């Protein structure tokens, strides 16, 4: 089965009574009649926060401002008749209404909008990620539900890439910070970076990060919380292929604790992108040559 990936951004908007706005998928979408949080796919080079604001305006008519990121989850939808499995990484933000007039988007993704309490939403057919975010029982979509394969994205330029990844601000009980050095031949070579990397098809972001932590540094960690989402667009990143790539990276950053740290060792499973890994005391972090995201996460540079 062909594996495809996409990244989406979605918003949680509440009214004064605490109800959440949901949108029902139209016949133009892959799951008609199913309700979910408003949102949709992130375009190339688009920041996830701007994507949820754009999608909200298109689907609901409301102008919103994206706030803190609430969750990062992933799911896979199979379309057997097309021989395709679509993995979607979903970033969910809290959003605040700033204007506009509520209306659905019949010609697009939503044909009805509604405000729901969790109990009211639980009685409706919900996309599983929406049920999980609302704290109601998660039920698989009906096998008999009409499923229209989402249109494949326009064929990108040969050297355009979009990638979802999960990274961690990893500390131990002594307050040390774990960093990894980027290997030669990769963007940022020689700089210290946060542990983590791209997630696999079908893999949850937090699980992917913990796998990468073992591969890149030989450490067993636990995710404490979700800190932020980072967006990186480099239209001329020089990758291992030796040619410039129009590179768009969407990265979630978690706080991770290693309760029983050991010597940091790169394993063979890490591949060639990680040269070494090491623990640093807080006073040792200052002055290191780091990537932008690592510098911000460790407090060495303002965001």
Verbal overview:
The chain contains six helices and 14 strands. The longest helix is centred in the N-terminal third of the chain and has 13 residues. A hairpin with a 5-residue loop joins β8 and β9. The model has no long low-confidence stretch (mean pLDDT 91). With 303 residues, the chain is of the alpha+beta class. The radius of gyration is 20 Å and the shape is globular. 36% of the residues are buried. The strands form three sheets. Strands 8, 9, 10, 11, 12, 13 and 14 form a seven-stranded mixed sheet that branches. It has a four-stranded mixed sheet with strand order 4-1-6-5. The chain has a three-stranded antiparallel sheet with strand order 3-2-7. The chain starts with a strand and ends in a 6-residue tail after the last helix.
Mean pLDDT: 91
- Low-pLDDT windows of residues: none
String of helices and strands: EEEEHEEEHHEEEEHEEEHH
Main β-sheet description: 7 strands, mixed
Structural class: alpha+beta
Q: What percent strand?
A: 35-45%
Name its key features:
303 residues, alpha+beta, 7-stranded mixed beta sheet, 6 helices, 41% strand, globular
What's the SSE blueprint?
Elements: E1 2-12, E2 20-25, E3 35-36, E4 39-41, H1 48-60, E5 62-79, E6 84-100, E7 110-116, H2 118-122, H3 128-134, E8 160-171, E9 177-182, E10 192-193, E11 196-198, H4 205-217, E12 222-238, E13 244-257, E14 274-280, H5 282-285, H6 292-297
Parallel strand pairs: 1-6, 8-13
Antiparallel strand pairs: 1-4, 2-3, 2-7, 5-6, 8-9, 8-11, 9-10, 9-14, 12-13
């Amino acid at each position: 089965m062909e594996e495809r990936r996409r990244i989406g951004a979605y918003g949680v908007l509440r009214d004064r009574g605490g109800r959440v706005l949901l949108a029902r998928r139209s016949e133009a979408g892959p799951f008609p009649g199913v309700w979910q949080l408003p949102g949709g796919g992130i375009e190339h080079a688009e920041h996830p926060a701007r994507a949820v604001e754009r999608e909200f305006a298109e689907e609901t008519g409301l102008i919103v401002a994206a706030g803190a990121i609430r969750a990062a989850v992933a799911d896979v939808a199979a379309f057997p008749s097309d021989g395709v499995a679509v993995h979607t990484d979903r970033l969910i933000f809290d959003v605040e209404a700033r204007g506009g007039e509520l209306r659905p988007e019949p010609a697009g993704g939503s044909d009805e909008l509604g405000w729901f309490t969790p109990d009211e939403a639980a009685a409706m057919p919900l996309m599983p990620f929406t049920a999980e975010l609302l704290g109601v029982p998660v039920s698989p979509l009906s096998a008999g539900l009409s499923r229209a394969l989402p249109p494949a994205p326009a064929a990108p330029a040969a050297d355009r890439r979009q990638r979802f990844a999960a990274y961690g601000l990893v500390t131990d009980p002594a307050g040390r910070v774990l960093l990894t050095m980027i290997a030669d031949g990769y963007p940022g070579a020689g700089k210290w970076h946060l542990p983590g990397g791209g997630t696999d098809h079908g893999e949850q972001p937090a699980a992917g990060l913990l796998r990468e932590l073992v591969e890149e540094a030989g450490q067993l960690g636990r995710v404490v919380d979700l800190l932020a989402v980072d967006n990186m667009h480099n239209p001329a990143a020089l990758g291992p292929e030796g040619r410039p790539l129009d590179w768009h990276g969407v990265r979630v950053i978690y706080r991770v604790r290693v309760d029983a740290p050991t010597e940091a060792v790169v394993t063979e499973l890490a591949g060639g992108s990680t040269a070494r890994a090491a623990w640093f005391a807080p006073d040792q972090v200052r002055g290191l040559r780091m990537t932008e995201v690592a510098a911000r996460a460790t407090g060495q540079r303002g965001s």
